[in-house]
Structures are given as C-alpha cells and as structure tokens.
Amino acid sequence: MVEPAIITTSLVTILGPPGSALGYAIRDFLYRSDVPFEWVQLANDAQARADAGVEHLADSRLPVCLFADGSRLECPTVRQITEKLGWFRNPARSEYDLAIYGAGPAGLSAAVYGASEGLKTVLIERYTLGGQAGSSSRIENYLGFPGGISGADLAKRAHEQVCRFGAEILLGREGVRADCTPHQMGGYLADGTKIVARATICATGVAYRRLGLPHEERFQGAGLYYGAGASEAALTSGQHVFVVGGGNSAGQAAMHFAQAACHVTIVIRGESLKSTLSQYLIDRISATPNINVLTQTEVAALEGDDVLREITLSNRATGESRTVATRWLFVCIGGEPQTHWASEVGIVRDAGGYLITGPDLVRNGRCPAQWPLTREPYYLETSMPGLFAAGDVRHGSIKRCASAVGEGAMAVALVHRYLANG
Ligand SMILES: Cc1cc2nc3c(=O)[nH]c(=O)nc-3n(C[C@H](O)[C@H](O)[C@H](O)COP(=O)(O)OP(=O)(O)OC[C@H]3O[C@@H](n4cnc5c(N)ncnc54)[C@H](O)[C@@H]3O)c2cc1C
To answer: Rounded to an integer, what distance in angstroms lies between the CA atom of residue 142 and that of residue 153?
Structure first.
C-alpha cells in the first residue's frame, strides 16, 4: 500500500470523494463534537492513491480518516470514530440515582444540576453532545451571549461543566426500551446493556422531519441534508444553496450559507416568514442581497445520480413547476419525537408522540388510569412515577434552548422531591 502523503495538523483529516454521504456524516459528527478536522476532497484516482493510500476514487475503503497519532481508519462508522476518540464507554455503576437520556440542552442542564446536587448521575446520548442546538452555527437569543454562540461551543462548555460536577457520560449509546417499576427504572441500550436508576429524565428531543419524497434516502448526505448543516458552509462556496423551512433554524442556516454560497434560496409553503421566524432574523435576511425567499412553494422531486443534481419546485398557488440545478438542499422543517419505547410501556403520549406531563395528564380532576399514586403527577413527571420529561420531547414545551435548559434544571428539582417523598 502507498503511504499517504498528507501531513495533518488537525486532530482528524478525512479524505474522500465528492458527494460521499459517509464523509458528510463524519464531518457533521466532528463539527458538532468540536473536534478540529480537515476535509480533503479527492479529485481523481492519482490523488486518491497519493493522499489516501487507496487504489482509486471509487475504492470502498474511502473515506479514510487520518488521526494525529498517525493511525488511520478506512470507511469508519461514526461509532468507530467515537471509540477511536476514547469516548465510547461502559457504565461504571450497576445503579444510579438519576439516568438522563439525551444530551441536548435539556439533558446537559439536567446532568449539571443532578451531579452538582449530589445525585449519582449518568447521561446517555446516542450521537454526540449538543442535540439540535449543536447543529446551529449561531444561537443569538441565549441569555448571557450577546454576540451569539455556536451550538458546538455551547455544547463544549456544557460538557466541561457536566464533567466538573462528575456526571458520567455514555456517548454513542441509544436508549431503546424501558422496563419501569416504581423506584427502579430500567432502560435498555441498543446493545442490550441495562441502566438501572431510581429516577429517569427523558430529554430525547426530536429527530428531523423528512420531506417524504422518492429518492430521499439515496441523496441523504450527498446533496440532501437535514438540519442547518453548519459543517458544510465552506464547501458551498460560489454555489446556489436551497434551504427548506421557515423557522429560526432555517433562517440561521440561510444566513450562515450566505457568507460562502453565491446565492441562497429559502423555500417555504406559507405566504411569508412573519409568523414563523424571529424578527431579528427577518431583518437580517431582508438586508442580505444574496438570499431570496420563495413563498407558497414546496420541493416536489429530487433527481440525480450518485449525488443530488436537481430539484423540482412547485408553486402551491399556481400549480406551476420548474426544475433547478443544485447540489445543496438543506431541510429544516422541524422534528418529531421518537418515543415508541414509551407507548410500549403504556406511558401517555399525545397524538404527535410527545410525552404528556404534570397538569396536562389531569382531566376533570382525574389522573389517567395508568397513574398508580394518590398524589397528582409533579409538573414535568410523565404518567410513570419517577420518569420525567424535559425539553422538546415534552408535550406543550417551548422549542427553545433556554426553555430546554430551564426544564432540565426544573426536572432535577422534581427528581429530588420524588426521591424524598415518592
Ligand atoms: C439548526 C437549529 C437552530 C436552532 N436555533 C435556536 C436558537 O437560535 N435559539 C433557540 O432558543 N433555539 C434554537 N433551536 C431550537 C433548540 O435547539 C431546541 O429547542 C433545543 O435543542 C431542544 O433541546 P432538547 O435537549 O430538548 O432536545 P434536542 O436538542 O433535540 O436533544 C435531544 C438529544 O437526545 C438524543 N437522543 C434522542 N433519542 C435518544 C435515545 N433514544 N437515546 C439516547 N439519546 C437520544 C439526540 O441525539 C439529541 O442529542 C434551534 C434548533 C435547530 C435545529
């Protein structure tokens, strides 16, 4: 094998062909994890041989990751990179006071408060720290950061705080099943590991909603991206980017891409951004000459080969359709909670799958049939005593960083009440 010629100064150098979906997944993971990395897009077979040490551009060993210690991983999964970075661990205890699922703003906040208040706390996250907020290039309305802060930076600071107070973090581990009895809750991880805790906080947020179009899976990470794609901005230089969605995440993404792309088009179904976007972002977008907004429009089709090449835009008012060339489509149309595990054990959810808590469980002065205690559920408590929900996964929550952080802290106060009084 030819020795790679790349000398890396970043912690990780990723070498891959254009449009590599795995290359994108690795970039996204490292960006959100605040790990310095360099992406080397291989242009031809000769460069693939010289720089990546593989035979050609279509070699199945690509992308290759080179680490600062001289080691390399070929076509690695995100889990293998988590392991390589030394972040993949087994639980240190057989039982915890508090288990928290999901390390977005709500879970990170709960871990800080839980551990700092003396609870043996474990924080379980299926991907990396930061949640949806971690994908934001700049959060400008979070208290205490007048100049704004990137989601990755916010997650890094929270990580330091969680570690300082001694909470245990299990990354790359997904909770898939619950096994609950009062005062002892079991959560099963995807590999069968059981986590036992006296109380649990579910802070699993939401997963990105899909467009529901043919070929969506094929182009995912190869022209079609969910979320704000903060890791990709520099790569869009001089190109036309499309962002679908009218919420703050879409607005932030558009502003971010406008710095590199030649043009950014926001595609929304509604008649204007007024009802969905914060005024500060509306003002910024209006003042940015290379952003335009297509109202009453939806993406109707995706076309391409190995990568996305063009999209069809359909005007809902006139019924007219047109096809435009692009290799960059970012979908920011909100999310859906993934709470199937809760319905399996009879926990009450709303029609959208969000976990119902506290006063919302009480109808006409009566608790749901599943509720086994004489007291009413605490404010953030689900219909399973001792299991709390915080942040975006909770029915009726405000979808904001600050409210998720607030609910994480509040859930811990209610955990104390539950552990003391039942
Ligand atoms: C691009 C973008 C920009 C945004 N900008 C702003 C902003 O400027 N200001 C603002 O206030 N809000 C903003 N928001 C909204 C804000 O980020 C969310 O409201 C907030 O992140 C919700 O936090 P959360 O902890 O409840 O859930 P999430 O952030 O969704 O985190 C949930 C975490 O749980 C993990 N998880 C899910 N299922 C499991 C499982 N089974 N096991 C283990 N882990 C699991 C996920 O991987 C994720 O890390 C933005 C959102 C996006 C997407």
So the answer is: 13
Q: For residues 121 and 98, is the Cβ–Cβ distance under 8 A? A: yes
* Burial status of residue 75 (CB atoms within 10 A of its CB: 0-12, 13-18, 19 or more): middle
Strands 194-202 and 96-101: parallel
Task: Return the DSSP state at 199.
Answer: E
Cα 168 to Cα 166: distance, rounded to the nearest angstrom: 6
Q: In the numeric block, which tokens belong to residue 279?
A: 């005024």
Q: What is the 3-state secondary structure (H, E, C) of 343-366?
A: HHCCCCECCCCCECCHHHHCECCE
Instruction: State the burial class of residue 86 (Cβ atoms within 10 Å of its Cβ: 0-12, 13-18, 19+).
Output: exposed
Q: Output DSSP code: residue 264.
A: E
Alpha helices per DSSP H over 195-261: 216-219, 248-258
Q: Probe ligand 1: pick from 129, 132, 135, 176, max atoms within 8 Å of CB? A: 132
How does pLDDT run across 96-130, given as a tens digit for each residue? 999 999 999 999 999 999 999 999 999 999 999 99
Task: Taking the CA atoms of 166, 167, 168 and 171 in sequence, report the sign of the dihedral they define.
Answer: negative
Tell which one of 204, 257, 280, 330 to mutate to probe ligand 1, the residue whose CB is within 8 A of the most ligand atoms: 204
Q: Long-range contacts for 320-325 (Cβ within 8 Å, ≥24 apart)? A: 324/240, 324/242, 325/240
The percent helix, strand, coil of the chain (3-state, each to 5) is 30, 25, 45
Q: Residue 183 — very low, low, confident or very high, per pLDDT cuts 50/70/90?
A: low
Kind plus residue range of the DSSP H or E element containing 198: strand 194-202
- The pairing of strands 329-331 and 224-226 is parallel
Question: Nearest 5°: CA angle at 415, between 412 and 421?
Answer: 145
Question: For the segment 228-276, what is each residue's pLDDT rounded down to a tens digit?
Answer: 888 898 899 999 999 999 999 999 999 999 999 999 999 999 999 999 9
